[in-house]
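lol ok so funny story. i was supposed to be doing the assay writeup but got distracted and ended up predicting the structure for this chain instead. priorities right. anyway since i did it might as well share w the group, maybe its usefull for someone
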Amino acid sequence: MNKPTSLTSIRYPAPAIGTRYKPFTQSRPAATESIPPSYKVPLHDGNAILNRQRLNRPVSPHLTIYQTQIPWTLSALNRITGSVLSGGFYVFGFAYLVSPLLGWHIESAALAQSFAELPTLVKGGLKFLVALPFTFHSFNGVRHLIWDSGREFANKSVVRSGWVVMGLTVVSSLGLAVYGT
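and the output, tada:
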């Protein structure tokens, strides 16, 4: 019968020649402020030292070093319009639910009458401002569905479809704003 061996008696193979075998060690070169060993760092001083070191680090230039391009601009606008549209629906829905409790009159007949009393130019402007995020988000969504099918994904096609979305957005928003004004 074989006698069970303990974990300490198991021999592991030696590492390959030329390698450094240091299990569970990390090396992280960082420029830090040296503190003499005799100096005891209170808790609040440790944070002050770290804050001073952070001031010496270079600041990332972020978006300021990049040239504005249509793909990432439309991507940001698509997210913004989606958030504005969904947020607007939630706010209006909540206001509609609490309006009887607060005495607000935001039922359809009251809103239609209030809108009808506005000057024609103001009505057209409001219609344009409401139609713009709807049309942009819709056309850009169709653009993304085309990309999801694997078509029109070359750089030139992406830029061209972006300008098409912008053109369709402006024309359709103006059409919706002017129609019936």
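DSSP finds five helices and no strands in the chain. The two ends are 98 Å apart (CA to CA).
back to the writeup now i swear
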